[in-house]
Design a protein that fits this description.
Elements: E1 6-7, E2 11-19, E3 23-30, E4 35-42, H1 50-64, E5 74-80, E6 83-89, E7 93-95, H2 96-103, H3 108-127, E8 130-131, E9 140-143, E10 148-150, E11 157-158, H4 179-182, H5 189-205, H6 215-224, H7 239-248, H8 260-275, H9 302-309, H10 312-320, H11 339-374, E12 377-379, H12 388-397, E13 401-407, E14 417-421, E15 427-429, E16 433-439, H13 455-464, E17 468-476, E18 485-488, E19 501-508, E20 512-514, H14 523-532, E21 536-543, E22 552-556, E23 562-564, E24 568-574, E25 590-597, E26 605-613, E27 616-625, E28 630-637, E29 642-647, E30 650-656
Parallel strand pairs: 13-16, 17-19, 21-24
Antiparallel strand pairs: 1-2, 2-3, 3-4, 4-6, 5-6, 7-9, 8-11, 9-10, 12-15, 14-16, 18-19, 20-23, 22-24, 25-28, 26-27, 26-29, 29-30
Helix pairs in contact: 3-5, 3-8, 5-7, 6-9, 7-8, 9-10
């Protein structure tokens, strides 16, 4: 993308917003339809790889035929000068992975709502004979309205297409991989449903079902380890949600949900329970699920999976390892088959009824205790981004207290909550004190990271850190947003004295250039310097001065100004020394030195020095000069000469020599 800011004269690239191993994603603007878009661009190292290019194009084809509110829409694709790109819907929000990492486990209602949206999107893909193959929380975007949208169909396949050896580096994230994918077996819609089960587990617990030191170890867990219960991490998760996860994560595809419709049906059933606040009910569906068929009956045998996952010698060694036989459960002893009838005969109906009523009373007491214990629970509201006053009002309304700690944060306004513990949507006892971390603003004397910031924003950030802008220069850097800082003289997070100046370099566009400093050059030298900068000489005027004839005194625009290439620059040159008028009352002028230090800080300032005496008024200096620069000029002036110094067009000094 070197030197380019648009694609096919239509899609303007604004800035980079993310990327993966295969491509980078940019925020762009469609200049024809006047809308923000996402632009996915294949990384440079893959453009000569026909397989990667074909897969990249296939992604556009896979997703373009899908139109669904929970799928990121594809608008266009193409290539230009070895840049392969896909234009898609621009989603403002965060990935589901970022949401979970920041807030922890989601509340049950939100997790189920997200799962319903994702399952509905997968149903649309499956109805078009497309398996996503890489369903994971990183590929699910949550927009500002809380709508989940699945993206990245880069490795999607048609039903039954195998993950062959050449694709082992792109078969999907190992943490979300179905057993058949790990084994290199053909993918089916149920492979996506397994991955969605992992995502649902992650949303409800904040953790992944399988985690290991190496990807191979995690893949083996998908193949061999028993399915973990989500209730192990959160005992309050209803059984019906745990049952949904258990079924979705069955290693045998025959024991999983057959279709996305089946998955959706159970998710909507769960949503009805949650919205109705049914909680743990006597519904038989809300009981621990036991799989009627063991994993030993899997359609894909363990040895086949090992063949796909391990090297040949490793797979052979795994097969030859002796297997311990599993005990066969004994058939139930039927000697007490008529025990129920004998109890009636032994104790009588009245005693049994009394025993039953007593048990019912005890059970009622237990239920009452549980309800009494949990009735005081409240849900912690989300107060991040709120002021202390706003947070206090929200927490008080929910019968919660708070404690405050402060921390420096250059990105958050002072007095605004940065973090809270426990996190939002957590269930706690009424009266619990929530710990709030409140921003103190940027730490004084610590240099903020100003790269990619607009100059005005960078100036404000420095002022908040008790620092100031030093010299500002400009240059063109391909790929960087126009008008933003591309480098700073002091590295971010450096600790310096308050009041220290930080010099900045700001980016301009490819068709712009900067006026060089021309003062003191001969006219021919100035013409050459302007030509090198892509500029030309405009009108040239002359004025008397102490400088040699044709020496450049000033330029318009001044040094450091940004102009379009090809623009003309007006020059003022010296006409040489002018003989001074002599009068009977004056013995002639004398040589005097004028000195002036440019005050202030920040960007360069236009300085103009005018001398007025008996011979008239003349400009002895005119140029754009950085603050702190000392200007010294020797002039010949008669008695009573007047010096006027203008700064950015305003009179700064007026004195008599």
């Amino acid at each position: 993308m070197e030197g380019r800011i648009t694609l096919n004269d239509r899609y303007e690239i604004i800035d980079k917003i993310g990327g993966g191993g295969m491509a980078e994603v940019f925020h762009g603007y469609d200049t024809v339809l006047h809308r923000d878009v996402g632009i996915k661009i294949l990384r440079d190292q893959f453009i000569q790889d026909k397989q990667f290019v074909a897969r990249f194009r296939q992604e556009a084809c896979n997703a373009a035929c899908l139109s669904h509110p929970n799928i990121v829409n594809i608008y266009d694709s193409g290539n230009e000068h070895d840049i392969y790109y896909i234009v898609m819907e621009y989603v403002v929000g965060r990935s589901l992975k970022e949401v979970i990492e920041e807030n922890g486990a989601l509340d049950y209602k939100t997790a189920v709502r997200y799962a319903i949206g994702i399952a509905s999107a997968l149903k649309q893909a499956h109805d078009h004979s497309i398996v996503h193959c890489d369903v994971k929380s990183q590929n699910i975007l949550i927009d500002t309205k809380g709508v989940p949208k699945i993206t990245d169909f880069g490795i999607a396949r048609a039903f039954g297409q195998p993950s062959n050896g050449s694709d082992k580096n792109v078969i999907g994230s190992v943490y979300y991989l179905s057993p058949e994918q790990a084994a290199g077996q053909p993918v089916t819609p149920q492979s996506d449903l397994y991955s969605l089960g992992v995502v649902l587990f992650e949303m409800l617990t904040g953790k992944l079902p399988y985690d290991g030191d190496t990807p191979l170890e995690v893949a083996r867990m998908h193949l061999e380890s028993s399915t973990p219960s989500a209730r192990r991490y959160d005992p309050d998760i209803p059984y019906y949600l745990d049952n949904i996860i258990t079924k979705a994560l069955a290693k045998n595809p025959r024991l999983r949900y057959a279709t996305a419709d089946d998955f959706l049906s159970d998710l909507k059933h769960a949503q009805t329970h949650l919205l109705g606040d049914a909680g743990l009910t006597d519904d038989p569906w809300d009981k621990p699920r036991k799989s009627p068929v063991s994993d030993e009956t899997m359609v894909i045998s363990k040895s086949d999976m090992l063949d796909g996952l391990l090297k040949p010698q490793q797979a052979e060694a795994a097969r030859q390892k002796p297997q311990q036989p599993k005990p066969v459960p004994k058939a139930p002893d039927n000697k007490d088959g008529d025990k129920g009838n004998s109890l009636v005969e032994k104790y009588g109906k009245k005693k049994l009824l009394a025993f039953f009523l007593a048990a019912l009373v005890v059970l009622s007491g237990v239920i009452y205790a549980i309800l009494s214990y949990t009735s005081g629970d409240v849900t912690v509201p989300d107060v991040k981004g709120k002021t202390i006053v706003e947070a206090e009002a929200i927490l008080t309304k929910e019968k919660l207290g708070y404690t405050l700690t402060e921390a420096y944060d250059a990105k958050v306004t002072p007095g605004v909550v940065i973090k809270q513990t426990p996190g939002a949507h957590t269930r706690v006892k009424a009266g619990r004190k929530i710990t709030l971390v409140v921003s103190k603003g940027p730490e004084p004397g610590v240099v903020p990271d100003l790269k990619k910031k607009k100059l005005n924003d960078a100036t404000m950030m420095l002022e908040k850190a008790k620092l100031k802008v030093g010299t500002v220069t400009v240059k063109y850097e391909a790929g960087a947003p126009k008008g933003t800082v591309i480098s700073q003289s002091i590295a971010p997070n450096s600790k310096v004295s308050e009041g220290t100046s930080v010099d900045l370099v700001v980016n301009i566009s490819d068709n712009q250039t900067v006026v060089p400093s021309l003062a003191g050059m001969s006219l021919s030298e100035a013409q050459s310097a302007l030509q090198s900068a892509g500029l030309s000489v405009g009108s040239v005027s002359s004025t008397s001065s102490d400088s040699a004839k044709n020496t450049v005194l000033s330029s318009d625009p001044g040094a450091g100004s940004v102009l379009d290439k090809g623009s003309a620059v007006t020059l003022v040159v010296s006409a040489g020394k002018k003989e001074e008028k002599k009068s009977s009352s004056s013995s002639g002028g004398s040589s005097r030195t004028i000195s002036y230090t440019v005050p202030g800080s920040g960007s360069a300032k236009d300085v103009r020095i005018i001398v007025t005496d008996d011979s008239g008024s003349r400009t002895v200096f005119s140029d754009s000069v950085a603050p702190g620069t000392r200007i010294s000029r020797s002039v010949s002036a008669g008695s009573g000469a007047r010096i006027q110094i203008y700064l950015n067009g305003e009179l700064a000094e007026d004195k008599t020599l």
